Amino acid sequence: MSIPRPTYVFALKFVLFAVSAGLVLISLEDTYTNAILISLAALVCGHIYQIFVYPFYFSPLRHLPEPQGGKFPWAHAAILGKVANGEAYKHWVNSIPNDGLIRFRVLLNQERILLSSPAAVREVLVTKCYDFDKDFQSNSLVREILGNGLLLASGEEHKRQKKIMQPAFQYRHIKDLYPVFWSKALESVDCIYSEGCKLPGSKTPQFASDWTARVSLDIIGLAGMGHDFNSIQDPGNELFKTHKILVKERPFFRWMALGFYVPIYWFFKLPIPLASKKQTRDAAKVLRDVARDLIDEKNKDGQFGSDILSVAMKSGGFTNDELVNQMMTFLAAGHETTAVALTWLVYHLGKNLDIQRKLCRELQTVIPRNGKSFTKVERLSRLVERNVALPDYNKEFDPLELDRLPYLNAVVNEILRFEPAVPKIIRVAQNDVEICGTMIPKGTTVMMSVNGMNTNKDLWGDDSMEFKPERWLNEHGEASNSGGAVSNYANMTFIHGPRGCIGKDFARSEILCVVAAWYRRYTIALVNADDEPKRTGYLSTRPADGLEVNFFPVTEPGTNSNC
């Protein structure tokens, strides 16, 4: 790759200046001044080499393809700053010809690597996963708020924590939590109705993001900590408002994002009174106190349930402070990603009403209107539906049945593929390490585009950019676990390898229950169906306006159903 001519000329002038200055300084008699000036000249030359010479002439990454643009001083960071979080990486992965690695540059020509193939992803996340670690700056800043829980721990400490937490997240234990997921999902259905479910023609919308946040937090609270935040019934309560402060993206998070380009961690260690930083830390302290009180109460009573906290406590592997860190991680990361996924699902089903109606019809075949047991009227109505599979009416509905509904599972799988809540993954090489035959120098930041891999046409086919649940069904309408992808590493939503998301079964099961409860009872229509929502967020990516919708009750089979 040739260096842009203006940059080359600029660098050459500086080098000549430094060399000339050095020759002049040699003739000076003042040894002390001479030493200082020579040191300064060497420092200038070193920076010129690092910025203008090394990336283009000596870097082992210089032969890799890179995006167009990249003018000094911001290089490709200028592009990243103009589009929504993760969108530039998604575009590069799908548009730049490459063999698995793409180079891009940020401020002052610092090199970054973007992975774009399953083979490259496998090396970083699986076979050489401990040669890479999370970004120190962003990790350190988040750790000050959440503590050193499983999400942020590294090396042997991460291995230890994961081993202790693993039993709580195994699917056989998640199955025990389905009644909690389902009961909270049904509670939200009733509250949506009482707070303003509308008849056709109504002009009073609700915000989907508000409801997804409320139901997700209550589920996380009960299933994760054995504590009901009661945000579905009372969104004005102090704990819900405090949690909103914790996860709300503020100027503080913008500074964190800037750390990708500039070493600014030291700035946050200074006693500078940033209001957003103080609010976030105060909110974290309140939630830490709640978690600590719950731990003390469980220890005192000796009553342990099936929630995640109880299972972790029974293991005996964590101190109380470590348990608090795990709960903070769960509250922040687990809640936000699930709420965002649900919000995007509401959007895409609102844009694709045929998919929404098909989902509703499947749900009506097995789920009673009240979500618990079938009434006599419902039983009679299904007798006239010749093509409707008849469930066992003599028992209450078991939410584990949801795992066996192919179209529901296809819809959930597709939203997790198409709209990953966290669009990118960052790792930093801890040693000189080879990826796909290219030597990656120690300290190089390596990016993985989750939404780029999840929509890569080479991995998913020509329809990869479409929201299409049918890709998760075979020709007989049965579940297809691969979604038609050519590699397991094509789907990056929950990452892979030892640092893969431990809570993926929890999150997926929670989403499954909420989607089933909502779309069994409601048609959810977008208020502005023709508008593409603006994307916002520095950590996760969500609709900026909260997504205005109307909830319309569905009618039942045998009664001219509107499904």
Automatic annotation (TrEMBL):
CDD domains: CYP_FUM15-like
UniProt-annotated binding residues for heme: C501
Xref: SUPFAM superfamilies: Cytochrome P450
Swiss-Prot/TrEMBL cofactor(s): heme
Alphabetized Pfam families for the sequence: p450
Transmembrane regions: 7-28, 34-57, 252-268
Any one GO MF annotation of this record: heme binding
InterPro entries according to UniProt: Cyt_P450, Cyt_P450_E_grp-I, Cyt_P450_sf, Cytochrome_P450_monoxygenase
Domain of life: Eukaryota
Protein keywords: Heme, Iron, Membrane, Metal-binding, Transmembrane, Transmembrane helix
Family: Belongs to the cytochrome P450 family.
Protein name, UniProt field: Cytochrome P450
